[in-house]
Give the backbone structure.
Amino acid sequence: MEPEDIFDDNSLSYLTTLFDGNAIMAPALPRKAVPKDRFPALSATLKTQTYHDPSTRGPGSHTIRTIAWNPTGHLIATGSSDRSIRIWNPEKPQVKNSTELRGHTGAIQRVAWNPTKEAELASVSTDGTCRFWDVRTRTCIASIPLGDEGVTVGWASDGSLALVVRRDDLLIPIYLHPDSPPTAGKSLPQSVQTNQTIFNPVGSPTTLLLTTGEGSVKICSWPPSSTTAAAAANGGTPLHHSAQTPSRSTTPVPPGSSASLQTLHTLHAHTSACISLALSPTSRYLAIGGSDALISLYDTHDWICRRTLSSLSGSVKTVSFSWDGSYIIGGSDEGTGIDIAHAETGEIVARIETSMPAPCVSWHPNGKYWIAYSGDPAGLKIVGAAGGGL
């Protein structure tokens, strides 16, 4: 489905510069990509490793709700319904080599790593807090009250802020400082359901993409307009591309302290709610998962939908690209199996059989065709971590 052309040439050029893989300085690939014709045979050799958490006591007691690789791929975090976060070394599956983080008093909704620090993790929970962790010391370095349940959290690519979405669709930016605690900025109320957000992939945050329950993805400018949205709740200086930082207060966001986003463009991607988002590592494609069981792939050069993937059985809870951007997978809490599609053609090139639905799926970020997924009663599973030819 093609979007309406509601932006001028200058806006298109601006967005292209931010997201087009040909227009930005993409990082060097760690190894040569495996071509589509060789991928099926090589993927069949991958062996799956199980990571069993001793907290598992039966069906539903330790449901993994979120998984995330750290930037280097040396660690992977899981967040569960029993309020626990566990950090695994994918090459050492024994639980004695893992780290448990405790402190939340409600189910973990989302974990996300600071893209510039391999040991800093953010988490949001139904307990109404966003916590920041140093996984090396197992320490919660900050806890920010949200005023309601957190749904998701995502980082700016430069690690300067984490953006939380609350259950009532209020966005709360949390600013990180080198020598002082994180501070919450002015809140951003949304008029429609918001499920996930991502920032532009390179440099300081200037553009924000967010899903809506109306089947669209809004592309907005950042920081918010007509407000000092980066200021802390009790006053402070906005976050610009300079060394200025907000106030050091950790006061909860007060009622009525809100800002607004300016929409640059809207992608009318699905006929029902958009749930998940992912940019390919080269920023060539934006993948949008919907409650209609479809994944749409948008070309970030002209923001036109190039192809639609339709192999899933239910709402697409997560989408993920391989480290080279060549392949894509989606996770759903309906049906079984994970289909691996070729991003350039949409062709299904391989399939991972699962005994249960796998709502959380995630490719290894740095040179390995490993796939982590949730949903199995035995615990986290990583395809490829136990060996294989990829």
